[in-house]
Write a structure and sequence with these properties.
With about 475 residues, the chain is an alpha+beta fold. It folds into three domains: about 200 residues, Sandwich (Jelly Rolls); about 110 residues, no CATH class; about 100 residues, no CATH class. The chain is about 15% helix and about 40% strand. The chain has a six-stranded antiparallel barrel with strand order 1-2-4-10-6-7. Strands 24, 25, 26, 27 and 28 form a five-stranded antiparallel β-sheet that branches. Strands 3-11-5-9 form a four-stranded antiparallel β-sheet, with no helix packed on it. Strand 1 and strand 2 form a beta hairpin. The longest helix is centred in the middle third of the chain and has 25 residues. The termini are far apart. The relative contact order is 0.11.
Length: about 475
């Protein structure tokens, strides 16, 4: 009897503690970012993006806003933003509806905001037309912040203990698999199971607007910088200025605000390094900076750097190498479109911006989950206009084999080797214009006439989870595994 009692006691303890953690279900949208909201004002019935969608939180434009759709002031309403598998250090918020000062005052603003970190789980069986469903569990430590009732951006530290969060993640991954092992096995979802962090921002208290009882947030960004470097969309750029000593370049807006674009140390200035404005685009959205280095008894070296001013981001050396056009020199307008003139050719400014958004670290749309590497693959496969990507077209559609190669010292070669009962072969899966430092063991999931490849890729600063569809192709060197994606 005592053994039976003891066994029942252990079973009770196991069940009690297994269910002590509360699991919640979230439905995420994956369009211009990964997000969800408990409500939305005038949300469309179909899958289109509404006027007050939470997507507006990520556009770095305070003239748009997410607006909650509850009856009343919106206290208790929440919005969630995904971070991927690494924690961000700060969040930056534009409180209220900042399209104008009048709209800011007429609508509710947030007084206090509750911040909760979640670990979410999803797999390919949970994919929806607009995104995916996720079961998630909250990290036990949350925080509440008081916002200022002012226009502009406010930045706060997230301050989660990385080591404790890592232990929490390991524990919850094991618990999730134990709780869902039957459904994972039946749905053949083990190979596509993935976890990710996200932040839930819950409205706790509001400051009532003078006319409407709707609470608004114009922008909400998760970043590793304080404050994030960009010029708000409601700030009109007036000009770009040089410092007196040639050691800095500034952007001046019509409102009189000044933003630092590029600077060098005083020692570098004394050693002959000088920054100057080579050319400002007619629309004042782009600038080319002349960087001169030299000094007494030494030769002079001159280089040029292209910046997109609203986001304060430069055209990366990786893209310059990929374009193979040399350094940027000037701007021209052709048929109403701005063109950047390079040493060896030219390229439309809007195409350059799209590439910078895809590969740029600081661009909001792609910070959280569908990160730069996977998106760069997608663009290369779909448009074929970025050299530096080696891939093979889908042989099932009898498309021509297309190989684009780039030889550059900073190019990292990602080579995946596969063997087993499903597929045999080897080859270069891709050539990336990144300094790849670590690649996880690949997970290969069989599909009909193809395979899904899942890798985790790290450049030493962050880890990115990528998924591609693989098909078997042929080249002069023999059988290869080809990528088609990402998925």
């Amino acid at each position: 009897m005592s053994r039976i009692f003891f066994s029942l006691f252990l079973l009770f303890i196991f069940v009690f503690f297994s269910n002590a953690q509360t699991w919640e279900t979230f439905s995420f949208t994956d369009a211009g970012g990964i997000y969800c909201a408990s409500s939305e004002l005038n949300k469309p019935d179909n899958f289109s993006v509404g006027k007050y969608s939470p997507r507006n939180l990520l556009d770095r434009d305070p003239r748009t806003a997410w607006v909650e759709g509850e009856n009343g002031s919106g206290e208790g309403t929440a919005v969630c933003l995904a971070m991927g598998d690494t924690l961000k250090k700060f969040f930056t918020i534009a409180n209220g509806f900042q399209k104008s000062h009048i709209l800011f005052l007429k609508n509710n603003r947030i007084k206090t905001l509750k911040i909760t970190l979640y670990l979410g789980f999803t797999d390919d069986t949970k994919v929806t037309q607009a995104g995916f469903h996720s079961e998630a569990v909250a990290y036990p430590v949350s925080k509440t912040v008081a916002l200022q009732d002012t226009e502009g951006y406010q930045t706060f530290p997230l301050s989660f203990d990385g080591q404790k969060v890592s232990l929490f993640r390991d524990k919850m991954v094991k618990k999730y698999i134990l709780l869902h092992q039957n459904s994972l096995r039946e749905g053949k979802a083990y190979g596509t199971l993935r976890d990710f962090f996200f932040i839930k921002f819950e409205i706790k208290e509001v400051i009532r607007g003078s006319k409407w009882d709707d609470t608004c947030i114009s922008d909400l960004l998760l970043t590793n910088k304080k404050p994030p470097s960009f010029i708000p969309a409601n700030e009109q750029i007036l000009t770009v200025l040089e410092s007196d000593n040639g050691g800095a370049i500034y952007v001046r807006t019509v409102s009189g605000k000044t933003y630092n674009l590029l600077s060098v140390s005083n020692d570098e200035v004394r050693n002959g390094k000088v920054l100057s404005v080579a050319s400002l685009s007619p629309d004042k959205q782009w600038v080319i900076i002349d960087i001169m280095e030299g000094g007494a008894g030494r030769g002079t070296e001159e280089s040029y750097r292209l910046y997109y001013l609203p986001l304060i981001i430069p055209l990366s050396s990786s893209l310059i190498d990929a374009y193979n056009l040399g350094e940027p020199l000037d701007f021209e307008e052709k048929d109403g479109k701005l063109t950047v003139v390079f040493f060896n050719g030219e390229k439309a400014a809007d195409e350059i911006l799209e590439d910078m958004k895809i590969t740029g670290d600081s661009f909001a749309f792609h910070e959280d989950a569908q990160e730069a590497l996977a998106l760069l693959f997608a663009k290369a496969v779909s448009t074929r206009d970025i050299p530096g990507i080696l891939f093979f077209m889908d042989e099932r559609n009898k498309k021509e084999l297309l190989v684009q190669k780039m030889n550059h010292d900073t190019t990292a070669y990602l080579t995946a080797q596969f063997s087993g009962p499903v597929i045999k072969g080897s080859g270069n899966a891709a050539i990336l214009p990144y300094n790849i430092t670590q690649v996880s063991d690949p997970v290969l999931q069989p599909e009909e006439n193809s395979w899904s490849l899942i890798l985790k890729i790290s450049d030493g600063r962050k880890t990115i989870r990528c998924s591609w569809l693989l098909v078997k192709g042929e080249s002069e060197g023999g059988s290869v595994v080809a990528l088609w994606g990402p998925q």
